[in-house]
Amino acid sequence: MKTYHKINRAMDSSVDGTVDIISSMPQEILHHILSFIPTQFAIRTSALSRGWRHIWCHTPFLDFDCSYIHGHRRQLTARDINQTIRSYRSPKVTSFHLSMSRNIREHEINSWIEFVLSRNVEKLSLVLDGLPNDHVLEKIFFLSSSLTQLCIRNFDMIAVVSWKSLRNLTLGECNLNDESIPNILSGSPVLETLELDYCRGPQRLDLSKSRSLRRLVIYLRKEPTEIVAPHLHYLSLESFNDGPCTLVDVSSLAEARIHIVVDNYSPPLNLNFLQTMVLKLLAKLQNVKRLTFTGTVLQILSLVELRGVPFPTFKVETLTVETRFTRSVIPGLARLLQNSPELEKLIAHATRLFGIPDRDLDRYMDSESLNPDECWRSKYEIFPTLLEFGSVMSCKDGTWKLMASFMEMVMRNVKRLETLVVGLECNKPKGSDARWFEELLQMLQSLSNNNNNTHSVSQNYSIDAHLWNLPDAILHFILSAIPTKPTIKTSVLSKRWRHVWCETPSLSLDTHRVTINIDSCLLSFVILVSGITIFLMAFTPILLSMPPEILHHILSFIRTQYAIRTSVLSRGWRHVWCETPFLDFDCFHRYGIRRQLTAQDISQTLILYRAPKITSCHLRMPRNLREHEMNSWIEFVVSRNVEKLSLFFDCYPNHVFEKIFYLSSSLKQLCIWHCDMMIPGCTVSLKSLRKLKLWDCHLYDESVANILSGSPVLETLRLDYCTGPQRLDLSKSPSLRRLKILWCPGPTEIVAPHVHYLSLSNSSEPPPTLVDVSSLTEASIDIIDSVNLCRLLNADFLQTMVLKMLAKLQNVKRLTFTGPILEILSLAELHGVPFPTFKVETLTVETNFTRYVIPGLARLLQNSPELKMLIAHAGYQVGIQDRDLDRYMDSEGLNRDECWRSKYEVFPTSLEFCRMIRCKDEMWKLMASFMEMVIRNVKTLETLVVGLEYVVNPTDGHDFISSLPDAILHLILSSIPTKSAIRTSALSKRWRHVWSETPSLSIDSHRVVARSINKTLSTFSSPKVATFHLRTCLANRIQHVDTWIEFAVNRHAEKLSLEFRDTRVRDYDFPDSFYANSTVKELLIESGSVVMKPKRDVSWTSLKSLSLSYCKLSDDALVKILSGCPLLESLELMFCDEFRCLDLSRSPRVVRLEIDRSDWFLGPTEIVAPHVHCLRLRHSRLPCRLVDVSCLKEANLNIYFCDLGTLTGDFLQGNVVKMLAKLQNVEKLTVGATFLQMLSLAALCDVRFPTLKVECLTLETMIVRSVVPGITRLLQNSPALRKLTIHTVKCSIISEAHLNSYLRSHSLNQRQCWRSKDTAFPGSMETISMLVGKYAESNLVASFVERLLRSTRSLETMVVLLVGYLDASGFEELVAMATRLSHKRNVFISIKQSHVQNVSNTFS
């Protein structure tokens, strides 16, 4: 009786009203689901509903098994496959599997293979069981460029192939001749994995010509007998007992698995032959780090051990054995462990693999005159035979004894073992209770504690044994079968289980008997399928409760055509998509989409669209589109004030934009792809455009000029693959800061005086000439087409390339060069071309560490005296070929051997580098040589970053940090305190003495006893200390402190820092040896207890930087110190007392001076510094006179006081205005808020101001009315001012009450003084309340900026850094106001928000 199952075609709702979640998923997800079942079952889904009718035929996976289908009534026929292929619609086939039967013709198979190859199949599996061996496939099969994985069985591989993308190849039971393997390897340049399953073919398998091949898996019976694979990293070899195999060359091997299959139906075992073969194999595996042996190999090794044959020594770190714990295995395993001195991890799987029978072993031992009883019973009697093993493992006591004996044997034969993992494949022991496995673990734990090693035991019936190691997909499948509440409880098992439950693609919530927070649970629950995030439709009530802005933000991540589908979820979703301010129409054909998006679809969507504003619009034009339709769409989004617009004209390069497009005032970002008619028919007016990207467009001189003139706030311009003007003039775009040019035939000249960042990647012609890039701070230069570059290599090109381009990059702070640039610089260096001097601080090089790069890089480092950071990225970078460089050197009469061997022989050529980067040891040597070269050629470097690509996998267990040279480890440890560095000595023997040789000591002894510090210094073995930092208290430690300071002096410390924070000790003086130190270069002393009283002459002959804080320093002591520092360049005196006159006239090298004074620490009253270039002075109300600062170029001034009780006109005249008179020649001036208030009082009192030559002025102040008169007068008296920077900081200023009191004492009307012009600006208390509440109006800042602009005539740039004044909306309003002021005053204005709360003490 037949049973018919009725299919419910109305799947929109089920009986209980739930929603069909699977049908609402995107088609990519449905295709992924159908890829897990055969095609004939996927076809059956077409009967579910109309929506499922054509889904199977778009799935890029085809699986036809014509042999036998379980549960199916008949076998799949050729007619079924032909009919399926005729209905198939997917343009691409990702995977195709075909298993043959005997009733299929050859031409049909060829037609199917041709079909999938024409669809660019990537994974192809062919099982040709039913075909004759002489069957020949079509030529297209051997010339497929899309194949990445290929598996073929029962086939004769005799043709020449061209599989350019093939990475994995599996051949099963194929007939191979002597030319098959070479043909495959030569035609598969990127082949990585090769698997040969019982193939018949050549006697010698030579893989030496395949450099990309990394994995070889081979199952052999007789052929091949020799394997040559010098580039292999992984080898799995399974051989029969009568199939000899020799490893000729496997020098790069890092992991191997060896298994010998015993054929009991073959002739009697030749164990002598097997021993010889295994020993030869082991000799080739000495350097392998990870080894796996099966029971048969271990049995053969046991025979070798009993005969007394010597074993090789292995460097294996992880050893895996798959065997039973029998007495015929243990001798070989024990000897193997003894000969593995570096072994760290042992994994033993007690499997049921068959080995050599005991009778064959006994027969062989009898033939060799070996007594089996004496051999086994002496040491290995406790281990069972092969027949006894099963009964032992079924008994609790037997298992205990066997496990303990095995552990003891391992511990007795290995010394460095850290981890032991044992896996058991056996039934639960008879008579054991529930605690059997726990008792075994406790026994092993005690054994682990006795031997200081780590053990783990796993068994298949124990939950804790194997579940922990299962993949996430299996754990998700297990948890999906139980309710969600119990699955959440698994998160407390371990860290491994913490987040497993929340990634399970199944929810089962029962809220009748339990109260849980479903909202928070569901909102955080997301299923990740194929990289697409899908919110379950059950979340609809929760999502609808969110604000519309959040729903719009969610829909902005998907295309508009998918967002429209959400309208069918419920009534609440019906109009959400049409109010989303994001539109994304991509009409390009995508795989898995049933039909292409048409112009009618887009027009209908725009008719239903309701959002009054469009934030972002992406439009990729469809085919067969009329031009008026494109213009109507663009006009629609422009009329909705679109801000971000991307237009792709793949099929319409000659499209002409309408006038409204060039007059959009809302556009901020614009990207245009493939447009040849960028010819504005009107004056462009893109007033808000900040970023412009043109890709594959043709530009004209007039078009570029019109676009730039109509984009006044344009900040970023990117030209990719564009053709157009020969001269790119950006001089009339003062707001443009970033310029990126990639693969553009033109321009040949670039004029960009305002650009800060330039990225230039040229391909076909010489790089363009940089006419004017005076404001450049960061640049990246690259030449991509090295073949064309070789044609241009000549002396004139070197002069143009090196001198003209590099001369324009002298002032750049951050530079990036690639390999071809450095190779050209090397040729210029060898040719004797002079290099300019650079001011670069951060240099990035993207190149290989070859000898053709090092000369240019070394010269570049030598000519960068201010370099602080070097970043080197090494990998497979494409550069000029070695033969072209050698050919050029021969043409110039340069001897190659003399040029390279003199200094750079240690560095490899390009071909040698590709080989070395795969070898760990050689790569570390190369890195050490590179670092030595860098350190030798640069003096000011602080940070060195080296990035490596395609290096040996770091998961191979090797400690890369410990392999670094000592110099690098010392550099690492010098950046942490000495207390932490000492702890590294416990890591390993390698680290035991590293800290004591680090030339840096940083000791903080507030909580450490003096005895511990003395012990540390006595253990310190480095003969020289580069940096010595000591922070301690002086109470009861003065004698120890003197000893520690003498230690630093005797070890020739170059950087010495001493901090004594103790008020209980007064008038501490250093020992006499402290003042006689010829090696110290930087000295910092901070203490209120130190009195600098040198009893004899000071001799700090190498000192360049001196910083004294809170020290007592007399005039005589200061004279002695300065006379003893002939190389002193920087002097800092922070709140030092007792000296009155600072005379630096006899210190011509001192160029930087920093002084802080207060009412408690008076400091100098007179400063004589005729050679100082930079001065930072924070002084009190007490007078401080600048006697001579004639060479001053940069100054930073402020005053510390708030009380005006003692303020007089003489103070203003003497301390403020006269100080300005001494700064007339200063080019960079920074003034604080209190100093500005003093200038305001001087201006109100009609004190005459001097005329300044300052070009860059920085004001660190709050926006208060009491600073406006002083700023105004300062700007009026600075006719050469070019740049003005305003830091709005919260700082201490004089209160308005004190200022008014001072004005009344001088018979001045305060209302007339303040309210005449400055009524719009608040007082000090009002400003502080604004900073606390952040409710200042943008008009206030704009009025302040406008007031300053009216006071200056020559200003070009104004930078405003706001701290805490405005919120987000106010900041946007201010930016808009600043834009209008910038056009009105013809001044570039930059408005920025900063998180720095107080910058009044910054000084460069």
From TrEMBL:
Keywords: Membrane, Transmembrane, Transmembrane helix
Coiled-coil intervals: none
Transmembrane segments: 522-544
CDD domains: F-box_AtFBL13-like (cd22160)
Record's keyword annotation contains Membrane: yes
InterPro entries: F-box-like_dom_sf, F-box_AtFBL13-like, F-box_dom, FBL13/AtMIF1-like, Leu-rich_rpt_Cys-con_subtyp, LRR_At1g61320_AtMIF1, LRR_dom_sf, LRR_FXL15/At3g58940/PEG3-like
Domain of life: Eukaryota
Sequence ranges assigned to domain F-box in this UniProt record: 958-994
Name of protein: F-box domain-containing protein
Species whose genome carries this gene: Brassica napus (Rape)
